[in-house]
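Tokens in:
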């Protein structure tokens, strides 16, 4: 299985329980409602964020009003790093897509943590390098993959945290958040009419169901296999 940009290990502190506890003890815990703004593009990058629960989208809005979603940040992920490490203004907006619990780490305190702990500093460097490779893989996928393949991989990525074992991969699973066709189009480099047509094709093939804007994947393994079988144009 190639080009697994959509199936990354998202737990930043995996294997670093001591560092996790130290981070959480020094950070500020915040509980935010759905659709709350975490930060705006242009804001001072004076903190980074650890997602304990919920979902956060990183996006921008063009001068013409078109919205582009760059990333979805899920539990276990750290975001806002590039700005906090370089004291840059925020390059995008961040907004919760469901009730979300965040741990906010001020830049001064984060710098102290990195200076005190080489293992944590190395993990940050490794993660930033992985994100650079992720962007390269995603650009390659946008350039060479079909829209159907990109859409399926995106759907799988949205439920990946809900698939802990082989048994779960064979059972129906609903996307943990209602996401619009416009948002799916933005994240796959496509258009809303195209995404609508492809979702209907997946529905007719028995791979997904759609009810009240809620998408359920009938069998994640079968859906992923369908993406891998698609012959790219």
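Residues out:
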């Amino acid at each position: 299985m190639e080009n697994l940009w959509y199936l990354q290990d998202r737990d930043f502190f995996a294997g670093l329980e001591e560092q996790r506890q130290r981070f959480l003890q020094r950070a500020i815990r915040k509980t935010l409602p759905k659709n709350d703004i975490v930060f705006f593009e242009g804001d001072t990058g004076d903190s980074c964020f650890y997602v304990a629960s919920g979902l956060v989208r990183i996006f921008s809005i063009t001068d013409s009003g078109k919205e582009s979603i760059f990333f979805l940040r899920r539990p276990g992920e750290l975001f806002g790093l590039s700005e906090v490490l370089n004291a840059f203004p925020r390059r995008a907006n961040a907004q919760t897509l469901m009730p979300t619990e965040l741990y906010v780490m001020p830049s001064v305190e984060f710098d102290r943590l990195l200076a005190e702990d080489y293992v944590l500093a190395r993990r940050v460097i490794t993660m930033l390098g992985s994100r650079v490779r992720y962007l390269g893989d995603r650009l390659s996928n946008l350039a060479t993959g079909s829209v159907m393949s990109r859409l399926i991989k995106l759907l799988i990525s949205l439920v990946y945290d809900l698939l802990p074992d082989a048994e779960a991969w064979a059972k129906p699973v609903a996307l943990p958040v209602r996401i619009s066709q416009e948002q799916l189009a933005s994240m796959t480099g496509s258009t809303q009419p195209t995404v609508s047509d492809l979702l209907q094709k997946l529905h007719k093939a028995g791979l997904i169901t759609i009810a009240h804007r809620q998408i359920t994947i009938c069998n994640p393994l079968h859906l992923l296999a369908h993406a891998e079988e698609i012959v790219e144009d």
